Amino acid sequence: MSTASSSRRTSTSGTKDKDSMDVAGPATPAVNDQEFSPELLRFFYTRLFPYQAMFKWLSYGNDPDSEGGHVVRDFFSRREFSFTINDDIYIRYQSFRDAAEMEAAIQKKQPHKIDIGAVFTMPPKDHHTVKAEAFKPVERELIFDIDMTDYDDIRTCCTGAKICPKCWIFMTMAVKVVDTALREDFGFQQLLWVYSGRRGVHCWVCDEDVRGLTNDGRSAVVEYLSLPRGNENNSGKGKNAGLTWPLHPSFARAFDILEPMFEVGVLGEEGQGVLDSENSWDTLLDSLPDEDLALKLRREMRRLTTAEERWREIKTQLHAKTGNSGGGARRQSRGGSLGGGGRGGGGMYALELWKYEVVFKYCYPRLDVNVSKGINHLLKSPFAVHPKTGRVCVPIDPVAIDDFDPFKVPTLKALAAQIDAYDAEHAQDEVARGVSDYKKTELKGAVELLEKCVVEPMALVMKKRARMERERHAAMIGDF
Protein backbone atom coordinates (compact mmCIF):
# COMPACT_ATOMS: atom_id res chain seq x y z
CA MET A 1 0.00 0.00 0.00
CA SER A 2 1.47 3.35 -0.96
CA THR A 3 1.49 6.06 1.66
CA ALA A 4 1.48 9.81 1.35
CA SER A 5 0.92 12.74 3.65
CA SER A 6 -0.26 16.23 2.83
CA SER A 7 0.41 19.47 4.65
CA ARG A 8 -1.21 21.86 2.17
CA ARG A 9 -4.12 23.83 3.61
CA THR A 10 -7.26 23.22 1.58
CA SER A 11 -9.21 26.25 0.44
CA THR A 12 -12.58 26.73 2.12
CA SER A 13 -14.01 29.31 -0.26
CA GLY A 14 -17.47 28.59 -1.54
CA THR A 15 -18.39 25.91 1.02
CA LYS A 16 -21.76 25.89 2.75
CA ASP A 17 -23.29 24.18 5.75
CA LYS A 18 -25.37 21.30 4.40
CA ASP A 19 -26.45 20.24 7.86
CA SER A 20 -28.73 23.28 7.98
CA MET A 21 -29.59 24.03 4.35
CA ASP A 22 -29.67 22.59 0.86
CA VAL A 23 -26.93 23.49 -1.58
CA ALA A 24 -26.58 23.00 -5.26
CA GLY A 25 -24.88 19.71 -5.92
CA PRO A 26 -24.87 16.74 -8.20
CA ALA A 27 -28.23 15.33 -9.10
CA THR A 28 -29.05 11.97 -7.56
CA PRO A 29 -27.27 9.32 -9.64
CA ALA A 30 -29.33 7.04 -11.81
CA VAL A 31 -30.40 3.98 -9.84
CA ASN A 32 -28.67 0.80 -11.02
CA ASP A 33 -27.40 -2.44 -9.50
CA GLN A 34 -24.33 -0.81 -7.94
CA GLU A 35 -24.41 -0.02 -4.21
CA PHE A 36 -21.07 1.81 -4.37
CA SER A 37 -19.58 3.85 -7.20
CA PRO A 38 -17.57 7.08 -7.59
CA GLU A 39 -20.75 8.86 -8.67
CA LEU A 40 -22.69 7.69 -5.63
CA LEU A 41 -19.81 8.59 -3.32
CA ARG A 42 -19.54 12.10 -4.76
CA PHE A 43 -23.28 12.51 -4.36
CA PHE A 44 -23.04 11.37 -0.72
CA TYR A 45 -20.18 13.71 0.20
CA THR A 46 -21.81 16.67 -1.53
CA ARG A 47 -25.36 16.29 -0.30
CA LEU A 48 -25.55 13.94 2.69
CA PHE A 49 -22.40 13.73 4.82
CA PRO A 50 -23.09 15.52 8.15
CA TYR A 51 -20.05 17.79 8.28
CA GLN A 52 -21.41 20.16 10.91
CA ALA A 53 -22.57 17.41 13.26
CA MET A 54 -19.20 15.64 12.97
CA PHE A 55 -17.36 18.91 13.63
CA LYS A 56 -19.49 19.68 16.67
CA TRP A 57 -18.73 16.23 18.05
CA LEU A 58 -14.98 16.16 17.44
CA SER A 59 -14.39 19.78 18.47
CA TYR A 60 -16.21 19.25 21.80
CA GLY A 61 -17.42 22.83 21.79
CA ASN A 62 -14.02 24.30 20.89
CA ASP A 63 -15.09 26.26 17.82
CA PRO A 64 -12.12 28.29 16.51
CA ASP A 65 -14.47 31.20 15.84
CA SER A 66 -15.95 31.24 19.35
CA GLU A 67 -15.14 33.75 22.06
CA GLY A 68 -14.40 32.98 25.69
CA GLY A 69 -11.45 31.80 27.72
CA HIS A 70 -12.94 28.31 28.07
CA VAL A 71 -12.56 27.67 24.32
CA VAL A 72 -9.42 25.95 23.00
CA ARG A 73 -9.49 27.43 19.51
CA ASP A 74 -6.90 25.16 17.93
CA PHE A 75 -8.40 21.95 19.37
CA PHE A 76 -10.06 20.64 16.22
CA SER A 77 -7.09 21.58 14.03
CA ARG A 78 -4.90 19.24 16.10
CA ARG A 79 -7.06 16.19 15.36
CA GLU A 80 -5.68 13.65 12.88
CA PHE A 81 -7.77 12.27 10.04
CA SER A 82 -6.61 9.77 7.46
CA PHE A 83 -8.05 9.09 4.02
CA THR A 84 -7.90 5.96 1.92
CA ILE A 85 -8.56 7.03 -1.62
CA ASN A 86 -8.91 5.18 -4.91
CA ASP A 87 -6.36 2.39 -5.58
CA ASP A 88 -5.86 1.97 -1.79
CA ILE A 89 -3.65 5.04 -1.47
CA TYR A 90 -3.44 5.84 2.23
CA ILE A 91 -3.00 9.47 3.30
CA ARG A 92 -2.25 10.15 6.97
CA TYR A 93 -1.84 13.31 9.02
CA GLN A 94 -4.74 15.24 7.56
CA SER A 95 -6.07 18.07 9.74
CA PHE A 96 -8.50 20.93 9.31
CA ARG A 97 -9.27 24.23 10.99
CA ASP A 98 -13.04 23.79 10.96
CA ALA A 99 -15.99 22.04 9.33
CA ALA A 100 -15.68 24.01 6.10
CA GLU A 101 -12.05 23.02 5.62
CA MET A 102 -12.83 19.39 6.43
CA GLU A 103 -15.67 19.43 3.91
CA ALA A 104 -13.50 20.93 1.19
CA ALA A 105 -10.81 18.27 1.68
CA ILE A 106 -13.26 15.37 1.69
CA GLN A 107 -15.03 16.59 -1.41
CA LYS A 108 -11.72 17.09 -3.18
CA LYS A 109 -10.16 13.72 -2.31
CA GLN A 110 -13.35 11.60 -2.31
CA PRO A 111 -11.97 9.09 0.23
CA HIS A 112 -13.26 5.53 0.10
CA LYS A 113 -12.48 5.33 3.83
CA ILE A 114 -12.09 7.97 6.55
CA ASP A 115 -10.32 7.19 9.81
CA ILE A 116 -10.16 9.37 12.92
CA GLY A 117 -7.10 9.53 15.15
CA ALA A 118 -5.89 11.40 18.20
CA VAL A 119 -5.58 15.07 19.09
CA PHE A 120 -1.88 15.99 18.95
CA THR A 121 0.32 18.73 20.35
CA MET A 122 0.15 20.50 16.98
CA PRO A 123 -1.78 20.20 13.70
CA PRO A 124 -0.85 16.82 12.18
CA LYS A 125 -0.47 18.35 8.71
CA ASP A 126 2.52 20.27 10.12
CA HIS A 127 4.14 17.31 11.90
CA HIS A 128 7.10 17.27 9.50
CA THR A 129 8.12 20.80 10.57
CA VAL A 130 9.14 19.77 14.10
CA LYS A 131 11.20 17.05 15.72
CA ALA A 132 9.43 13.75 16.34
CA GLU A 133 9.50 14.18 20.12
CA ALA A 134 7.55 17.45 19.81
CA PHE A 135 4.69 15.80 17.94
CA LYS A 136 2.78 13.63 20.41
CA PRO A 137 -0.83 12.51 20.91
CA VAL A 138 -2.42 14.14 23.94
CA GLU A 139 -5.97 12.79 23.90
CA ARG A 140 -8.55 10.72 22.01
CA GLU A 141 -11.73 8.82 22.74
CA LEU A 142 -11.48 5.36 24.28
CA ILE A 143 -12.45 3.10 21.41
CA PHE A 144 -13.56 -0.51 21.05
CA ASP A 145 -13.61 -2.59 17.88
CA ILE A 146 -15.62 -5.82 17.80
CA ASP A 147 -15.35 -7.78 14.54
CA MET A 148 -17.29 -10.87 13.52
CA THR A 149 -14.20 -12.61 12.16
CA ASP A 150 -13.00 -13.01 15.75
CA TYR A 151 -15.94 -15.39 16.26
CA ASP A 152 -15.04 -17.68 13.35
CA ASP A 153 -13.95 -20.51 15.65
CA ILE A 154 -17.50 -20.83 17.01
CA ARG A 155 -19.59 -19.69 14.02
CA THR A 156 -21.15 -22.54 12.04
CA CYS A 157 -23.21 -20.37 9.69
CA CYS A 158 -20.60 -18.04 8.17
CA THR A 159 -16.87 -17.33 8.05
CA GLY A 160 -14.69 -14.36 7.20
CA ALA A 161 -16.48 -11.24 6.00
CA LYS A 162 -19.83 -12.97 5.63
CA ILE A 163 -22.56 -12.40 8.21
CA CYS A 164 -26.16 -13.50 8.62
CA PRO A 165 -28.91 -13.02 11.21
CA LYS A 166 -27.76 -16.19 12.99
CA CYS A 167 -24.34 -14.82 13.84
CA TRP A 168 -25.18 -11.11 14.13
CA ILE A 169 -26.54 -11.95 17.57
CA PHE A 170 -22.92 -12.09 18.76
CA MET A 171 -22.63 -8.36 18.04
CA THR A 172 -25.88 -7.75 19.91
CA MET A 173 -24.50 -9.64 22.90
CA ALA A 174 -21.26 -7.67 22.82
CA VAL A 175 -23.02 -4.30 22.76
CA LYS A 176 -25.22 -5.23 25.71
CA VAL A 177 -22.37 -6.49 27.90
CA VAL A 178 -19.83 -3.76 27.09
CA ASP A 179 -22.32 -0.88 27.20
CA THR A 180 -23.65 -2.01 30.58
CA ALA A 181 -20.18 -2.40 32.07
CA LEU A 182 -18.94 0.96 30.81
CA ARG A 183 -21.95 2.77 32.23
CA GLU A 184 -22.49 0.89 35.49
CA ASP A 185 -18.94 -0.01 36.51
CA PHE A 186 -17.03 3.03 35.21
CA GLY A 187 -19.74 5.67 35.16
CA PHE A 188 -19.08 6.65 31.55
CA GLN A 189 -22.01 8.48 29.97
CA GLN A 190 -21.08 9.71 26.48
CA LEU A 191 -20.97 6.47 24.48
CA LEU A 192 -21.36 6.38 20.73
CA TRP A 193 -21.96 2.95 19.16
CA VAL A 194 -21.46 2.70 15.40
CA TYR A 195 -22.05 -0.03 12.82
CA SER A 196 -18.81 -0.70 10.94
CA GLY A 197 -20.56 -0.95 7.58
CA ARG A 198 -20.01 -4.66 7.10
CA ARG A 199 -19.35 -7.17 9.91
CA GLY A 200 -18.82 -5.43 13.22
CA VAL A 201 -19.45 -2.59 15.64
CA HIS A 202 -17.35 0.19 17.15
CA CYS A 203 -17.74 2.08 20.41
CA TRP A 204 -16.43 5.60 21.09
CA VAL A 205 -16.32 6.60 24.77
CA CYS A 206 -16.24 10.39 24.67
CA ASP A 207 -16.35 11.52 28.31
CA GLU A 208 -13.77 14.23 28.92
CA ASP A 209 -11.89 12.35 31.65
CA VAL A 210 -11.67 9.28 29.43
CA ARG A 211 -10.17 11.12 26.47
CA GLY A 212 -7.08 11.95 28.52
CA LEU A 213 -6.34 8.37 29.58
CA THR A 214 -2.81 7.09 29.06
CA ASN A 215 -2.16 3.84 27.21
CA ASP A 216 -1.85 2.10 30.58
CA GLY A 217 -5.22 3.48 31.66
CA ARG A 218 -6.84 2.32 28.45
CA SER A 219 -5.27 -1.11 28.83
CA ALA A 220 -6.67 -1.36 32.36
CA VAL A 221 -10.22 -0.72 31.14
CA VAL A 222 -9.89 -3.30 28.37
CA GLU A 223 -8.40 -5.83 30.79
CA TYR A 224 -11.36 -5.35 33.11
CA LEU A 225 -13.77 -6.00 30.24
CA SER A 226 -11.93 -9.11 29.04
CA LEU A 227 -12.17 -12.72 30.16
CA PRO A 228 -9.21 -14.05 32.16
CA ARG A 229 -6.36 -14.95 29.83
CA GLY A 230 -6.54 -18.39 28.33
CA ASN A 231 -10.22 -18.75 29.10
CA GLU A 232 -11.86 -17.68 25.85
CA ASN A 233 -11.26 -20.90 23.95
CA ASN A 234 -10.63 -23.25 26.84
CA SER A 235 -11.80 -26.78 26.21
CA GLY A 236 -9.62 -28.85 28.49
CA LYS A 237 -11.52 -31.11 30.87
CA GLY A 238 -11.71 -29.59 34.33
CA LYS A 239 -9.70 -26.52 33.34
CA ASN A 240 -11.43 -23.23 34.06
CA ALA A 241 -8.44 -21.01 33.35
CA GLY A 242 -8.77 -17.71 35.22
CA LEU A 243 -12.41 -17.79 36.34
CA THR A 244 -12.78 -17.99 40.11
CA TRP A 245 -15.62 -18.73 42.46
CA PRO A 246 -17.53 -16.72 43.47
CA LEU A 247 -17.67 -14.97 40.12
CA HIS A 248 -16.66 -11.34 39.91
CA PRO A 249 -19.89 -9.27 39.86
CA SER A 250 -19.18 -8.09 36.31
CA PHE A 251 -18.98 -11.68 35.07
CA ALA A 252 -22.09 -12.62 37.04
CA ARG A 253 -23.99 -9.74 35.45
CA ALA A 254 -22.66 -10.66 32.00
CA PHE A 255 -23.90 -14.23 32.46
CA ASP A 256 -27.36 -12.98 33.38
CA ILE A 257 -27.39 -10.89 30.19
CA LEU A 258 -25.98 -13.57 27.94
CA GLU A 259 -27.55 -16.86 29.00
CA PRO A 260 -31.06 -16.10 27.66
CA MET A 261 -29.53 -15.08 24.33
CA PHE A 262 -27.31 -18.17 24.39
CA GLU A 263 -30.39 -20.38 24.73
CA VAL A 264 -32.22 -18.66 21.88
CA GLY A 265 -29.44 -17.79 19.48
CA VAL A 266 -26.67 -20.36 19.97
CA LEU A 267 -27.96 -23.72 21.14
CA GLY A 268 -30.42 -24.85 18.47
CA GLU A 269 -30.48 -25.14 14.71
CA GLU A 270 -31.82 -21.60 14.45
CA GLY A 271 -28.50 -20.54 16.02
CA GLN A 272 -25.14 -22.31 15.97
CA GLY A 273 -26.46 -25.81 16.72
CA VAL A 274 -24.39 -26.40 19.86
CA LEU A 275 -26.92 -28.89 21.25
CA ASP A 276 -28.68 -29.78 18.04
CA SER A 277 -26.98 -33.07 17.15
CA GLU A 278 -25.16 -35.91 18.87
CA ASN A 279 -21.81 -34.81 17.47
CA SER A 280 -22.30 -31.28 18.77
CA TRP A 281 -23.41 -32.21 22.28
CA ASP A 282 -20.66 -34.86 22.52
CA THR A 283 -18.13 -32.14 21.78
CA LEU A 284 -19.62 -29.91 24.45
CA LEU A 285 -19.85 -32.63 27.10
CA ASP A 286 -16.26 -33.72 26.46
CA SER A 287 -15.22 -30.57 28.32
CA LEU A 288 -17.35 -31.35 31.39
CA PRO A 289 -15.00 -32.00 34.36
CA ASP A 290 -17.01 -35.05 35.58
CA GLU A 291 -16.93 -38.10 33.33
CA ASP A 292 -19.76 -39.91 35.12
CA LEU A 293 -22.02 -36.90 34.81
CA ALA A 294 -21.06 -36.47 31.15
CA LEU A 295 -22.00 -40.10 30.45
CA LYS A 296 -25.34 -39.65 32.18
CA LEU A 297 -26.07 -36.47 30.26
CA ARG A 298 -25.27 -38.10 26.92
CA ARG A 299 -28.05 -40.58 27.55
CA GLU A 300 -30.44 -37.76 28.50
CA MET A 301 -29.52 -35.74 25.42
CA ARG A 302 -30.76 -38.54 23.16
CA ARG A 303 -34.07 -38.69 25.00
CA LEU A 304 -34.81 -34.96 24.73
CA THR A 305 -35.97 -33.32 21.51
CA THR A 306 -34.93 -29.64 21.60
CA ALA A 307 -31.69 -27.83 22.35
CA GLU A 308 -33.39 -25.73 25.02
CA GLU A 309 -34.60 -28.85 26.83
CA ARG A 310 -31.09 -30.30 26.72
CA TRP A 311 -29.55 -27.16 28.21
CA ARG A 312 -32.13 -27.11 31.00
CA GLU A 313 -31.35 -30.76 31.73
CA ILE A 314 -27.64 -30.01 31.88
CA LYS A 315 -28.24 -27.22 34.39
CA THR A 316 -30.58 -29.43 36.44
CA GLN A 317 -27.96 -32.18 36.67
CA LEU A 318 -25.25 -29.68 37.56
CA HIS A 319 -27.46 -28.30 40.31
CA ALA A 320 -28.09 -31.78 41.68
CA LYS A 321 -24.37 -32.51 41.65
CA THR A 322 -23.16 -29.29 43.23
CA GLY A 323 -26.16 -28.58 45.47
CA ASN A 324 -26.22 -25.01 44.23
CA SER A 325 -29.27 -22.93 43.43
CA GLY A 326 -30.56 -23.02 39.87
CA GLY A 327 -31.01 -19.25 39.87
CA GLY A 328 -29.06 -16.54 38.14
CA ALA A 329 -25.32 -16.07 38.36
CA ARG A 330 -25.62 -13.10 40.70
CA ARG A 331 -27.27 -15.18 43.42
CA GLN A 332 -24.82 -18.02 42.97
CA SER A 333 -21.86 -15.69 43.04
CA ARG A 334 -22.56 -14.92 46.70
CA GLY A 335 -21.18 -18.27 47.68
CA GLY A 336 -24.07 -20.72 48.01
CA SER A 337 -23.19 -24.15 49.38
CA LEU A 338 -19.70 -23.86 47.91
CA GLY A 339 -18.69 -21.47 50.62
CA GLY A 340 -15.93 -18.94 50.00
CA GLY A 341 -13.89 -18.19 46.94
CA GLY A 342 -11.85 -20.75 45.09
CA ARG A 343 -9.97 -21.14 41.87
CA GLY A 344 -11.36 -23.20 39.03
CA GLY A 345 -9.34 -26.29 38.28
CA GLY A 346 -11.03 -29.24 39.89
CA GLY A 347 -13.81 -30.57 42.11
CA MET A 348 -17.05 -28.75 42.69
CA TYR A 349 -15.61 -25.36 41.80
CA ALA A 350 -14.67 -26.59 38.33
CA LEU A 351 -18.05 -28.21 37.85
CA GLU A 352 -19.97 -25.14 38.96
CA LEU A 353 -17.90 -22.85 36.77
CA TRP A 354 -18.30 -25.04 33.71
CA LYS A 355 -21.68 -23.68 32.60
CA TYR A 356 -20.35 -20.12 32.81
CA GLU A 357 -17.35 -21.16 30.76
CA VAL A 358 -19.62 -22.61 28.11
CA VAL A 359 -21.79 -19.51 27.79
CA PHE A 360 -18.79 -17.16 27.84
CA LYS A 361 -16.92 -19.20 25.23
CA TYR A 362 -19.66 -18.50 22.72
CA CYS A 363 -21.12 -15.21 23.87
CA TYR A 364 -18.64 -13.04 25.79
CA PRO A 365 -17.43 -9.98 23.81
CA ARG A 366 -14.21 -10.49 21.90
CA LEU A 367 -12.46 -7.13 21.93
CA ASP A 368 -9.55 -6.11 19.75
CA VAL A 369 -7.25 -5.10 22.60
CA ASN A 370 -4.69 -3.37 20.38
CA VAL A 371 -7.29 -0.97 19.03
CA SER A 372 -8.37 0.11 22.50
CA LYS A 373 -5.10 0.41 24.39
CA GLY A 374 -3.26 2.79 22.05
CA ILE A 375 -4.07 6.49 22.21
CA ASN A 376 -2.70 6.91 18.68
CA HIS A 377 -4.82 4.18 17.06
CA LEU A 378 -7.07 5.29 14.20
CA LEU A 379 -10.62 4.00 13.75
CA LYS A 380 -13.11 4.27 10.91
CA SER A 381 -15.22 7.40 11.11
CA PRO A 382 -18.95 7.32 11.72
CA PHE A 383 -20.80 8.09 8.47
CA ALA A 384 -17.98 6.69 6.37
CA VAL A 385 -19.16 4.34 3.62
CA HIS A 386 -17.98 0.76 3.33
CA PRO A 387 -16.87 0.28 -0.29
CA LYS A 388 -17.65 -3.45 -0.28
CA THR A 389 -21.28 -3.04 0.79
CA GLY A 390 -22.11 0.59 0.03
CA ARG A 391 -23.57 0.83 3.55
CA VAL A 392 -23.09 3.89 5.74
CA CYS A 393 -21.44 3.47 9.14
CA VAL A 394 -24.43 4.70 11.12
CA PRO A 395 -24.67 5.21 14.88
CA ILE A 396 -26.57 2.53 16.80
CA ASP A 397 -28.84 3.01 19.80
CA PRO A 398 -27.69 0.44 22.41
CA VAL A 399 -31.09 0.58 24.09
CA ALA A 400 -32.67 -0.69 20.86
CA ILE A 401 -29.82 -3.02 19.84
CA ASP A 402 -32.19 -6.01 19.63
CA ASP A 403 -33.99 -4.24 16.78
CA PHE A 404 -30.89 -3.27 14.83
CA ASP A 405 -30.60 -5.10 11.50
CA PRO A 406 -27.32 -4.60 9.58
CA PHE A 407 -29.03 -5.69 6.38
CA LYS A 408 -31.43 -2.75 6.62
CA VAL A 409 -28.73 -0.11 7.03
CA PRO A 410 -29.08 2.25 4.05
CA THR A 411 -26.75 1.99 1.09
CA LEU A 412 -25.73 4.92 -1.07
CA LYS A 413 -28.10 3.73 -3.78
CA ALA A 414 -30.98 3.52 -1.31
CA LEU A 415 -30.28 7.02 0.00
CA ALA A 416 -30.30 8.44 -3.51
CA ALA A 417 -33.65 6.78 -4.17
CA GLN A 418 -35.06 8.14 -0.89
CA ILE A 419 -34.19 11.70 -1.86
CA ASP A 420 -35.82 11.25 -5.26
CA ALA A 421 -38.94 9.82 -3.63
CA TYR A 422 -39.14 12.67 -1.09
CA ASP A 423 -38.69 15.35 -3.74
CA ALA A 424 -41.32 13.77 -5.96
CA GLU A 425 -43.81 13.55 -3.10
CA HIS A 426 -43.22 17.15 -2.01
CA ALA A 427 -42.74 18.73 -5.42
CA GLN A 428 -45.35 21.43 -4.73
CA ASP A 429 -44.34 22.03 -1.12
CA GLU A 430 -42.34 25.26 -0.76
CA VAL A 431 -41.30 24.43 2.82
CA ALA A 432 -39.97 21.01 1.80
CA ARG A 433 -37.60 22.60 -0.68
CA GLY A 434 -35.58 24.01 2.20
CA VAL A 435 -35.22 20.68 4.01
CA SER A 436 -31.67 19.39 4.26
CA ASP A 437 -31.10 16.38 2.04
CA TYR A 438 -30.09 14.06 4.88
CA LYS A 439 -33.42 14.78 6.57
CA LYS A 440 -35.17 13.35 3.54
CA THR A 441 -33.55 9.96 4.19
CA GLU A 442 -32.94 7.35 6.88
CA LEU A 443 -29.79 9.26 7.83
CA LYS A 444 -31.96 11.74 9.71
CA GLY A 445 -32.32 9.41 12.69
CA ALA A 446 -28.62 8.48 12.56
CA VAL A 447 -27.49 12.11 12.71
CA GLU A 448 -29.94 12.84 15.52
CA LEU A 449 -28.53 9.88 17.46
CA LEU A 450 -25.00 11.25 17.09
CA GLU A 451 -26.21 14.59 18.43
CA LYS A 452 -28.06 12.95 21.31
CA CYS A 453 -25.18 10.73 22.39
CA VAL A 454 -22.23 13.13 22.22
CA VAL A 455 -22.98 16.58 20.78
CA GLU A 456 -25.75 17.68 23.14
CA PRO A 457 -24.05 16.46 26.37
CA MET A 458 -20.86 18.32 25.45
CA ALA A 459 -22.85 21.46 24.60
CA LEU A 460 -24.20 21.41 28.15
CA VAL A 461 -20.67 21.08 29.54
CA MET A 462 -19.44 24.04 27.49
CA LYS A 463 -22.46 26.10 28.52
CA LYS A 464 -21.64 25.40 32.16
CA ARG A 465 -18.03 26.42 31.63
CA ALA A 466 -19.06 29.66 29.95
CA ARG A 467 -21.33 30.45 32.90
CA MET A 468 -18.54 29.74 35.38
CA GLU A 469 -16.20 31.97 33.40
CA ARG A 470 -18.72 34.83 33.52
CA GLU A 471 -19.17 34.34 37.25
CA ARG A 472 -15.41 34.40 37.87
CA HIS A 473 -15.08 37.54 35.78
CA ALA A 474 -17.95 39.19 37.66
CA ALA A 475 -16.34 38.27 40.98
CA MET A 476 -13.05 39.82 39.93
CA ILE A 477 -14.61 43.16 39.01
CA GLY A 478 -17.17 43.14 41.81
CA ASP A 479 -20.15 42.99 39.46
CA PHE A 480 -22.45 40.55 41.33
* Bulk shape: globular
The SSE order reads: EHHEEHEEEHEEHHEHHHHHEHHEEHH
Mean of residue pLDDT values: 86
According to DSSP, the number of beta strands is 12
Low-confidence stretches: 1-24, 231-240, 325-345
Biggest beta sheet attributes: 6 strands, mixed
DSSP summary: helix tally: 15
Question: Which percent range fits the helix content?
Answer: 40-55%
Fraction in beta strands:
5-15%
Q: Span between N and C termini?
A: 62 Å
Structural class by SSE content: alpha+beta
Instruction: Report the C-alpha radius of gyration, rounded.
Output: 26 Å
Topology:
Blueprint: E1 3-5, H1 38-47, H2 51-59, E2 79-85, E3 89-94, H3 99-109, E4 113-120, E5 137-139, E6 142-147, H4 165-184, E7 191-195, E8 200-205, H5 208-211, H6 215-225, E9 244-245, H7 249-265, H8 278-285, H9 291-303, H10 307-322, H11 329-332, E10 342-343, H12 347-363, H13 369-373, E11 379-380, E12 395-396, H14 412-425, H15 443-477
Parallel strand pairs: 1-3
Antiparallel strand pairs: 2-3, 2-4, 4-5, 4-11, 6-8, 7-8, 7-12, 9-10
How would you characterize the overall build of this protein?
By secondary structure, this protein is an alpha+beta fold. 40% of the residues lie in helices and 11% in strands. The chain has helices spanning 38-47, 51-59, 99-109, 165-184, 208-211, 215-225, 249-265, 278-285, 291-303, 307-322, 329-332, 347-363, 369-373, 412-425, 443-477, and strands at residues 3-5, 79-85, 89-94, 113-120, 137-139, 142-147, 191-195, 200-205, 244-245, 342-343, 379-380, 395-396. Strands 1, 2, 3, 4, 5 and 11 form a six-stranded mixed β-sheet that branches. A four-stranded antiparallel β-sheet has the order 6-8-7-12, with helices on both faces. Strand 2 and strand 3 form a beta hairpin. The radius of gyration is 26 Å and the shape is globular. The termini are far apart.
